[in-house]
Each structure stands twice: as structure tokens, then as C-alpha cells.
């Protein structure tokens, strides 16, 4: 069967991303997520290169995917069996081993400082040693495309040495990300014509020109049958080929879908959840415009677009959003028309009564956005506003008053800390409930301020509604000054999430940042209660 093998390098290449450092337990969790997606190979790291990678291979997760250890070819002047770096990689005990070696003559001479023939011998001997040890051998041809352009005969000689030594896969690497897709396709075809079958070839691209996914697809079209990448495109500099994007494209586009039978429909619908979980591990916000899985990937803001989407989603959506676990969004803003509004109300499950004044909702939105609100990024607050106009906004509670006090002082250890104390008084069914909460950190680095205290006080005791918000947490807080000077207005947008991964955004506006924050907090709680079917 003509089949494409998916090879993930998140646990190694992804860890080379600036600011990223996985723990061994995080690497295990990511490996299990990759396995559930249907990935064929999971490169776990470089055993012996750092304690985390060594710990991961000491207690590897059980996976259907082939767990692979990464290392480099033996050094010149010693045998493959007497190279301690290569030995550490083999000692990881994985059935598959990937070794990187130079294929660009410039790097051989200048970086390694050895002769071209010595480098070819290092490649041959190292891969033959892997085969002799009963391992599946993979050769990572570093700087291959630049090497091919500089000295085609030598770059090919390196590949043929790996092939003759018994390599199962020979991976063509665009290490600096500078090769364009049409070049990658043509060179891959030339390598196949030179005697290395496509079902022995892999492609490994970097995104320095923004072409990593396109370059990977070009190599696949040329005949390569292994593709490497990282979740969410993590990697050094501009990142690696985004495997999240590649998986969806390969599985959903007719030309490629027969090549990836290992990606089930169920696995594909978990793509967004997997992408978001990686962002959570890294404490990053999802990239809004990420293909397939970004929060804005299926957002249709312009009125004409929304009108067409209502009639035929395929007009502006090349794939159904639910295929990858995402959802369509019709944002509301001062650019919206009645088509946007009707589509958005329909998506929210709102019944529009006969004769409802939709124009009044649009007018109110435009007035409020002129005051500083922004509803295209706060869909939950828009829904509450629309419900109010339609007479469908339940009244769960009324905030009678709130107060926040911030104190800066030294703790018992002599450290400077700030302590925020919040009091919130709400009325529910004729009963007044007062909640008090304190928020503080042990140092400036982890200090939590008045908004955190307000949230904890508001969510502390909502009586019959408490169970509905116990799994709710705040995941992002954004502040924007909409105009400067003494009349400055502050806009606060808050993102909330529950244990099921549902995420929603609310907005508040006020000259006072705390007041704007509290408005957004109230909207977040009310929207959650409505969505979960709470009854006032």
C-alpha cells in the first residue's frame, strides 16, 4: 500500500524553541497525545544529551507508535562500537534510532574539520552498526538541500552510503529553512531518480521562509513517504513544519487522504484539543490565525461573508470546522450587518421572535463599540447583550456592591508583597450574600492582584448556582487603553475555560480598570450559567 508515515519531533526539535523546556512527565503526556492522533514515529529526544531526555527514555511510555531515539553519527578517529555518544543513544533501547550526519561539503570541512571521505565513512559505519544491533536505522541528512546545490555529487554520495549501510529511512533536511517548495519537489524527484526509492525517503523542513508545510507537501507529491514536523510548529528560530497543519491537510484533502489511513476521523476531531493542550503545557495562548485549530480559523466577520456562510458554509470554508474539533464563529462588531447578527444568534441557539428589532441590537453594538467595547473578540458578552434586547436574559443574581483594598507591605520573611482583599455582596432570590476573599503572592514574581481577589470573592458563594461555576477558571486577561489623556477608557477582555475545554471571552469597559474587569467577570459567570442550563 502506498502509505505516508508521520514522524513527530516535538519532544526534541520542539524543545529547541526559545523559552520551551519540557519536563520528563510533560514529554510523556505529549507522546501519549501524539500516539492517540495516529503518529507513526515519536522522536523522544537525545539520550545522554541532558537529564530530562535520559529520564524520559529510562521510563518510556507505552505507545503504538514507534519510539525513536536521536543522536549523531560516530566521530572520526574511533569505531562505531567505541563511540560513547553513539553508545548512549543505543542504550535507550528503542527499536528505531535516528542519526544526524552532515551532507553539505562546507559543513564537513568547516564545522567537523574532517575530510569528505571520512564523513562518508562515519555515516556508513554508524548506520551499519545500528543494523548490526538489530535497530531500525534512520539517517537525518543535515543541510541536505544546501549541500545538493553546492555539491550535488557529494550530497548524493552521503545518501547512497546510508542506503547501502541498511538505512530504512533517509530524511532530506532543509535545516535552515531557506529552500523553496518548488526546489524541494524537484530535488526530491532527482534523488529518487538517482536510486533512492521514495518509500525510503523522508522530508524535514524548517519554517524560516514560511514554507515548511508547503515544502513538505512538495516532497510528498514528488514521492517521499515519511514527513517530519512538530505540534503547533514548535522549533528553533521560526519553527519546524507544523504537524498539526500537515495532519489536517493530509487527512482532509482528496489528493493526500489515501496516504494517511492511520488518521481516523475520531483522531482528527481531537486535533484542536491536542493543540490547545500543548499550548496549556507551554503556558501560551493559542495562535488566533493557526490553520484549522486557531480561534479565528473559522471566524467570518464581514457582513457579505456571513451572508454567504449562512446559505452555504463551503463558500468560505475549505473544510468543515467540526472535522478538526473547531467551530464556526460569526463575530459581531461595528462592521456587522443583519446577516452576521442572524447567523450569530442562530449559532447561540437563540430564538428570534417575529418582529424582533434586530436593527436596535446592531445600533446598540455600534454605540457601545464607539464607547470602547469590542465584541468580535468577546462573543459571550455579545450574546448576553443580544439576549437582553430579545428579553431572554435570565437574572440569576444582582451585585449590590463590591469593594477592593490593596495593601503593600512586608511579610514575615521581610519580602515585599501586595495583598488584595475583595468584598462582593450579591442578592439572590431576596437573600443577600456577602463573600470575602484575599489574594496575594509570596513575592513580586507571583503576586496576584485585585482582579484575582474579585473573581475569588464573586465565585465563592453563589448558592444554587455554585456547582455550575466550580469548574470555571480564568485563563487570560487583556487590557487596552482605548483613548489616552485624562479621559482614558480601559477595555478589559477576559478568557474563561471549564474542565471540558470550553473557552469563552467577555469584555468590560470603564475609566476604572477594576470596574471594567468586574463587568467582564460578571458576564463570564452569567454566560456559563446560561450555557449549563441553570435556572434563576
From TrEMBL:
Pfam families, A to Z: HCS_D2 (PF22617), HMGL-like (PF00682), LeuA_dimer (PF08502)
Keywords from the UniProt entry: Amino-acid biosynthesis, Branched-chain amino acid biosynthesis, Isoleucine biosynthesis, Transferase
Start and end residues of each Pyruvate carboxyltransferase domain: 4-269
Pathway where it operates: Amino-acid biosynthesis; L-isoleucine biosynthesis; 2-oxobutanoate from pyruvate: step 1/3
Top-level enzyme category: transferase
CDD domains found in the cross-reference section: DRE_TIM_LeuA3
InterPro entries xref list: 2-isopropylmalate_synth_dimer, AIPM/Hcit_synth_CS, Aldolase_TIM, Citramal_synthase, LeuA/HCS_post-cat, LeuA_allosteric_dom_sf, PYR_CT
A single BP term in Gene Ontology: L-leucine biosynthetic process
Top-level taxon of origin: Bacteria
Reaction catalyzed: pyruvate + acetyl-CoA + H2O = (3R)-citramalate + CoA + H(+)
Single GO MF annotation: (R)-citramalate synthase activity
EC number, as in UniProt: 2.3.3.21
Sequence similarity: Belongs to the alpha-IPM synthase/homocitrate synthase family.
Name of this chain's protein: Citramalate synthase
